[in-house]
């Protein structure tokens, strides 16, 4: 076994990785604020945020108890009957809640997409259909759920589930999305934004597949794209720019959660396609944001500088802002275990343990922003910078990428961490010349592919 493989297998599967008996995304695990239950319950029971799915029925002893055998829930107006009658749709909803919602809630301690969005979806079919669309698309991509008889999830055989179902569910959302400008109801407007954010995740898969098809990577199990293309980013941006949304932003937490997820989606598109974020990055939205979301906004601003602005003045501002955010983040998000890589033992990546996905995401984005500002420093151009200084910068950038990979491998219950590691590898992977380091990085790319079922030929070829 090569040193790089030994590094990945032994360090991060047996010795260097904390053991997660259950998913860190399930209630009661991971890091949650002490008042999470009360905050979430208050949000759902607030008159401004009705939650009829939590209406209680009187049991035979007269107590207010929720019973699985209570009368089915019917939302007023547009109605969806709960409990769901279709096992396939029930599985899709469960898959979203248990497997996908954590992607949306990475920087959200209140976990809106796990706890609030499924409840709101009972009242708004277009939101429920968006959930079904994303779940169907993702569930049908992963080989571990495929059997000769069809998709098997949680003991439920889903023989009729195909990638085409994602297209059908998406099409059911489009009428509501197109009419968003006429919406007067605050609750519905929030849900339209959440719907667009969920459906935009499909674009990541579809965009990757379009590139993969040109390379012959997509297998026969991949489904068609919707013939009726919708620019979900344009809808997200238009909803956020509308006066009703700007008024809502300060007092409705779901719209805030959807906004910050949309910014993180922009980070993905910026770093993978190397173009500036296209959506609104209003500094006002960041003033009352959590520290984690301030880091998200800072990283988006760095991406905008890298692929659009490029000015020395903005670099200086971002450099100072990043130093302040990093200092604050290090005070709150200290790792609870760090061990440098032991090269004599064949280790390539350091061992770095954090206590939550929020900490992992925040610190990885800090590293990415710092790395870009360092590698693209406009004051180091030309002949005024010595070759020794450039080597020093390259060494620091390489170490940052190794740190990103080490963090991601140490947190297998947080698959998005692999995405952030991929950002660094795509940008500055050519800084690596050492054979063992390149093989180790290729192993991380393969883990990224397996975790997301994403085509990664371009990134994989970088480390041949």
Tell me what you see in this structure.
Helix content is 58%, strand content 4%. It is mainly α and 464 residues long. It folds into 2 domains: 36-53 and 69-260, no CATH class; 290-464. The chain is globular and about 65 Å long. The protein starts with a helix and ends with a helix. Residues 1-81 are annotated as: Disordered. This is ARCA protein. One of its GO terms (biological process) is positive regulation of transcription by RNA polymerase II. Keywords: Nucleus.
Task: Give me a quick take on this structure.
The protein is mainly alpha-helical and 464 residues long.
Question: What strand line-up does the widest sheet have?
Answer: 3-4-5
Note the beta-strand portion: under 5%
Residue share in helix: 55-70%
* Number of H- or I-type helical stretches: 19
- Compute the separation of the termini in Å: 17 Å
Judging from the principal axes of the Cα atoms, what is the shape?
Answer: globular
Helix-strand pattern? HHEEHHHHEEEHHHHHHHHEEHHHHH
Low-confidence stretches: 1-77
* Number of E strands: 7
Number of discrete domains: 2
Please give the radius of gyration in angstroms.
Answer: 23 Å
Mean pLDDT: 80
Structural class: mainly alpha
Major sheet attributes:
3 strands, antiparallel
